[in-house]
Each structure stands twice: as C-alpha cells, then as structure tokens.
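tool_call: predict_structure(chain=1)
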Amino acid sequence: MNFFSNIFSNKHVTKGEVEITPSTVTPDEKPVKDVVKWSAEYIEDLTNPIVAGSNYLELFRSVPEVFFPVDYVASRIAGADFQLKKVKDDSIVWANKRINDILNRPNCLMRWRELIYQHHVYKFCTGNSFLRAAMAETFASTDIWRYCDNYWVLPSDKVLVDPVYGNVPLFGIANTEDIIKGYRLQYGWNGNLLIPPFQIWHDRDGGIEFNSGSTFLKAKSRLTSQNKPISNLIAVYEARNVIYVKRGGLGFIVSRKTDATGSIALTEEEKSQLLKQNFEKYGIRRGQVPFGFSDANIDFVRTNLSISELQPFDETLLDAISIAGAFGIPAVLVPRKDQSTFSNQSTAEKSVYCSTIIPKAKQFCRDFTAFLGLENSGYYLDCDFSDVDCLQEGLKEAETVKTAINKRCREQFSCGLITLNDWRAQIGESMVENPLFDKLKFDMSDEELDKVNRVFNTKSGDEENGRESQKPSVQDEGK
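tool_result:
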C-alpha cells in the first residue's frame, strides 16, 4: 500500500534542501538540513482512511473474511441434488438423456456442480452472472435444452452489455433484442466476442443499473455495502504484517543522565559504543551472547504497538460478522480464533438453509427452467436438500405435522365438515377433477360411501351416511 511504501522508502531531501509548510514558516527561519521529505501523497496517506477497491473477485480470492460467506452459500447450493420433474404430477423424470447429460457435464471442461458454484460466486461477488448456451443461431426461437450441449458461465467482470444505439424503447413496449444488441466478452483469446442475446441468461443479484457504459443493465454487488469493514480488514492485515516482520523503528534509546540543568544527551562516542556493542557482541550469531551490558545510563522508549495492544483479532471478527451478515449468515457460524461452539449452531445452520440457501437454489431452478424452455415440454428443474444433516430434524417435524393434519382432516371428513378436495388442499396436494371429491360425506350415495370406505379400509356397514352405527351394549350372559 502507498502508506507503508512511503514510510519505508527512505525518501530524504538531499543536503541543503528543505520542504516546509508556508503556514508554519516565519521570515526569520532558515532552511533545515537533512530532514525527511513530507510529500503531499505522504500527508494524504497519513490522514485519509484506507478504502477497499471494487474488485470483489480479487478480494474473494485473497481475503478469508470475504471468501467465507460467498463460499458458504455457493458451495451448499452447488451441493444440492438437482432433478428433472414433470409439471403435471411433480414426479421425477429419470430417463431424459439430454437433461441428464446437462446435469452431469454441461460443457467439455466442467461438471454440473462446478458450473453452479462458479455461477453463484460471480453473482455474489460482482452482482451479475452470465450463463451462456453456446449454440447455432438457427435454433434461436426453439427450446434451448433440445439443441444445446454446451453451457458456460462467463467471467462477469469481462462482459459488457451492448445496447441498441438510437431510439431505444427502454421503458416502453419492447423485446430483449430491441434494447440489447449483444453481450460483449472481452477476455483472453476471444478478444471482443459479441454474443447474441438469446444465448445469454443474465442473473442479477439486486437492482438493475440503467446508466450507460460498462454498468448498463448490471447490478451492484452486495459487497459494496461492506466496503468499510473490508477496508478495516486490509488495514489490520497490513499492520499485523508490519509488526511480524519488524519493519520500521521499534523505539528510541534515550539517556537517563541528568545534572542540575536537567537531562544530558548521549555523546556521539557513547552512541557509537552502544551500536558497536549491540551489533558485535549481542545477538544469536556465532561469537555473540543473547544478553548485553551497557556502561551508559540509558532507557528504551518503545514507539511501535504489539499485536495484543492492537487487538486485531477482535477487529477482524467484527468485520467478518458484518460481511457474513450481508449473505444472511448469523454470527455464531463465523469462524473465530478460539473455535467457539454454540448450542444454537445447528439451529442457525438450519435457518441459513431455510432462509437463504434453499430459496436461492429454488430461484435458480425456476430461472434456468425458463431459460432452457423446459416448461414448454411439461418439465421443470428442481433441487432437493433432504440429505443435509441439519435439516433431518426439520423433516421429521414436518412429517409429524403432516400426520397430525391428515388425522384431523380424516375426522373432519368423517363428520361431514370438509370434502376430499378440501382435505387434499390442506396437505398441499392438487385438486382432483372428480365430482366425488367435491361432495360432503352426507351427500354421497351408498355406492360412493362404499368406495370411500374401501379406501379407508373400513367396512361399509360400520358407517351409515357419515354416522357410525350404534351397536347395543354387551350384557353379561348371567344377568
């Protein structure tokens, strides 16, 4: 950083030169020789705070506190079990070869999990992710999933959205092609590749920027709100590194000699003897001893701060908690130096799944389903997290609740309060197009009651018109 490079660059004014602030100079003052040059940049570095840049991808790669929340959410979304289902009955489709190929290896270099992880890393770090279906323009108006075998996540920091120049109906009646000319990839060997809009799914993490230029139709990263905590982290790591490698002055050796007039400074001869003794006799090299003696009456004044005095770990924990909070991760899940564990960690992890990870994974499935055109063929993409340990208790609770709802609905149906379709609605099932399912039990015929009773594994004679038949009480045979 400029601050530390200026401090340790040993920039001095040559003999006879001086740089003095005009407001502090009087006409009688004379130039001072051999002083450190205080440049405008040096003063600015001393007085202005350190501010993190906007290259959040680099911060993700280099700052652990930024890496943790992004990786936490992205890796768990990528670890879900993605499935193809039928819209009609939500059943899993196992034998669709084209979709199975996509869910196995979406391109020649990546597996599906890598693609999902990369997609969300770009989305969280830059606010945007561009997923490309590389295919011929001949199939621009058809279902993408039928004709495309190569899906790529583009480096979002290298993609520009090119508008259609001229009278663009930005807030009017328009199709995508009326506003977007293409997506320009400025990366590597591709140079300046313009990709047609139908091949790109632009997934944004936030609101759209309508400013012209490199941010056109892009979203800002949620890490923008964490610039100050990230800046604090960078400052802490820099300061910690400076102390560890012992750069800069540690302190001053000062004289403790006094006379009637006050303190007496060390003479040049005394200074030379101290330096000679320190470097020649005291140390850990051969011929040196790890302790020293001094004939001079001196003291040492420390000018630097120790690690414990700076309390950098407390600062980094607070900043890490703030950054993790931007991704919906509670403080109890943030790694800390003492590896503290909390009794509510499992509950907190379950909360993150329910409030952040699963909703974002479901939203990805809905958007990717629309991009591929799966709904036109009666399919949709879904994700399953049933094998996650912290959610197992929740699944058991859900089954208990569902059993209780079924028991209550059966009693209500038997009493003639609800229909079979009402019952299905309460347990989250779809409506059945059959007149029998819209009747109360009292309105059913004997044949319909017999059919329902067979389903419930009850005898048809046990119930009559929704009421249980009254049986005589059993009497003792001797009375």
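agent: Confidence is low (pLDDT under 50) at residues 1-25, 459-479. Proceeding to next step.
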